Amino acid sequence: MSWLNGIRAKSISVLLFNAGGCTGCARQFQTALLLDSGRGITLTGNPRHADVLFVAGCINDMSADYLKQLYKKMSSPKAVVAAGACACEGSLFRREGNGVNPLEEILPVDACVRGCTPGMDEMLETVINVVEDGYKECENGRDHDKELE
Amino acid sequence: MLEIILWFIGIIIIVPIIYLTENFILNAIPGQKRTYLLQPIYRLIKHFSKTDYYNRPLTRWFPVGACLFALITLYFVAAGENILLIISGLTMMELFVLVGACSTKEPYGIMAAQRGIARLTVWSFTLMTAAASLYKVTETLQLSRVIQYSSENILLVRLPLVTAGLFTAAMIKGNLGYFDFGINANAMSFLDTALYTPYGGRSLGVVQLTQWIETGIWLKLISYFLPWKPWISFLVSTIFYLAAMLLSTIVPRMSWKKVMTNSWIWAGGLPAINYIWLYML
To answer: Along the 149 residues of chain A, how does pLDDT read in single tens digits?
Structure first.
């Protein structure tokens, strides 16, 4: 239902998860929320209230477990956005054998914002578009929670 | 009967109108983060379009029970029933939300319930002292008779601190300013409140709707103490509440223990002093 997605896109609660690294992407996103184009997007510290899980930084084995727990606690429909080179593809840390994984290997990712660090507008646009265009899990009818288990 | 229905509808819609007005004013102030005017409505629709997540299936029914009690209490308020019935209804509503939070069997749910109980002790004391003071002055607990008394005598002159205490209790329920029992002591959690932490999806929508109705009930209760016609008094209490919400955006948050002390001083202490004063007279 496009009208419902339009309404959802005007009130988005984002759970920001910084997995580690330089924290540049997370700070960039927090600053971007002050822009006028970020109207309607709010940060929440509670996965139960979140619509979008926004992940930034290098994901190791320990943070991967936390990410799965957070994702399971979010109410459906929900979306996952990977931001920055580290979360999208592991960046240069992946070759060091530190257990760094791209987010796509852990959770069903709806969108990636590439760059180190990505632009503010790109991050905001991605979060809004992910909700406005309909959640991926709604489109293909898959139950990502069961797939994770 | 028509008057009761009109009050019923008026009390339900007044709180969304307060939120819309607040957004309108904040959007007009330079330097504030702009938001959509209808965002509270959008948020409610969004919550109702989501699924519930619970580790216990019974948990989702507690918010429904709370909402039912809020509606029953709303009828009591609109019909000018006995204030003791209203206190019972509000307490039952709160208990349903708290038991629902406890039933999630999660640390954050139990912590939220503990904060809720701490809050309940304050505002229930305020309401009981207000009822006792009201009886001392008017010799009735029936709110419809209180209106008659209020039209002939100015109730606010004899119960000024009770009125202030009730308004503080309304601020406690709305998590405003120095009376915010929020779990994070910042703006990170929804409605800045500990009580809603364990709820998500549709249940959160029901809890939010309940909170709107409850705020309307408190505003109507406060309006009984004001000296004007009922609807003018209700409008005045609404404007005061809106002013408190706007002030709350520039007031720093503090730890919940400090909030607890503040709440007992203002919401517990003021009505108690007023009651002792009446007793001495």
So the answer is: 678 888 888 889 999 998 887 888 889 888 888 887 778 888 888 888 888 999 998 888 888 888 888 888 888 888 999 998 888 887 667 666 666 778 888 888 888 898 888 888 889 999 998 888 877 665 555 566 666 65
Look at B36 and A39 and tell me if their CB atoms are within 8 Å. yes
What's the domain count of chain A? 1
Query: Which residues are A113's β-sheet partners?
Result: A83
ipTM score of the complex?
A: 0.86
B253: left (phi over 0), alpha (psi -120 to 50) or beta: beta
A148 domain-assigned: no
> What ranges do the domains of chain B cover?
2-280
CATH number, domain of A92, equals 3.40.50.12280
Which of B20, B43, B56, B106 to probe by mutation at the A interface, max A CB count within 10 Å? B43
Is A118 domain-assigned?
yes
**In whole angstroms, what is the distance from residue A12 CA to residue B44 CA?**
12
Type of residue found at B184: N
